[in-house]
Write a structure and sequence with these properties.
Layout (H helix, E strand, L loop, with lengths): L2 E5 L5 H13 L3 E3 L8 E8 L8 H10 L3 E10 L6 H11 L2 E2 L4 E4 L12 H16 L1
Parallel strand pairs: 1-2, 1-3, 3-4, 4-5, 4-6
């Protein structure tokens, strides 16, 4: 089974999760500016909310790589929201890409809110989530 990890981050919070997930599934975490060169059965895709939506870079990545994405498994951080599935699924559905019903999400530091997040416990939980997905 081919696995890939891609992420988009402005603050570095989601990159921390991406690296923890990538270590757990033994692949490299790469920014969404790096296209998928071959089909990924599972794509762990990390992003956050920006103005209640995902960034255009994430939308473009999904659209441009749709033929090489088997299924997207979302992960991300945010100050207030609880899941990235809804905005990612909207883009993925339009591109004909499946999105898993399970995702990993945790608080991310944003200004004075949630200082130090994601923390070591969040990173461990992200890694455990990725391992659980791989066992399904």
């Amino acid at each position: 089974m081919k696995i890939a990890v891609r992420y988009y981050t402005r603050s570095g919070n989601t990159k921390k999760l991406a690296e923890a997930i990538a270590d757990a599934v033994k692949v490299d975490a790469k920014d969404v500016t790096i296209p998928l060169m071959e089909k990924a059965d599972i794509l762990f895709l990390g992003c956050s909310y920006y103005a209640f939506d995902v960034d255009e870079a994430v939308k473009n990545f999904i659209s441009e790589n749709r033929k090489n994405i088997g299924k997207i498994v979302c992960f991300g951080t945010s100050a207030m929201m609880k899941s990235m599935i809804k905005p990612v699924k909207k883009v993925a559905d339009a591109a004909g890409v499946q999105v898993a019903k399970d995702d990993f999400h945790c608080k991310g530091s944003f200004g004075p809110m949630h200082k130090g997040k994601p923390d070591e416990n969040d990173l461990k939980r992200a890694a455990d989530f990725a391992k659980m997905i791989m066992e399904q």
